[in-house]
Amino acid sequence: MYAVCLRYARHELEAQDLMQEGFIRVFEKLKDFRMEGSLEGWIRRIMVHTAINCYRRKSFQQERFGLEKLPESPVPADAMDRLGTEELLAMVSTLPEGYRMVFNLFAIEGFDHAEIASMLGCGESTSRSQLAKARRMLQSMITASTTPVHVGNASH
To answer: Which of the four, 26, 34, 115, 119, has the lowest number of CB atoms within 10 Å?
Structure first.
């Protein structure tokens, strides 16, 4: 569950707080668990909703970074092969909070834009826009990290 919290947090201490708050909610709601599905899945949903509630309280939804004009270019085919999972998750963790929240909910948790909009209290178009901006930022980061650095020929 800590990995789930890390995806939504800005740093490790915040992830630890999210996990603690999430497990408090798990224990409070344990009597409501109906044994109809996976306990792990049920706990995971509580952790995700705890992160969303924390996000709402902080109300960082008004982030504006002027990335609308950032071109969406294809990532080199071998870029993903050269990136490890930890590197990719580290890149996701550097996204602005709103972008990271929507990216995690859509790409990792599998929610659609209507569900995300409902959870975050925003419009579906905002969810789509933040996802597109998150993807563009990630593409730029991936391209920058996988582009070989060419050292000029220094003749003396």
So the answer is: 34
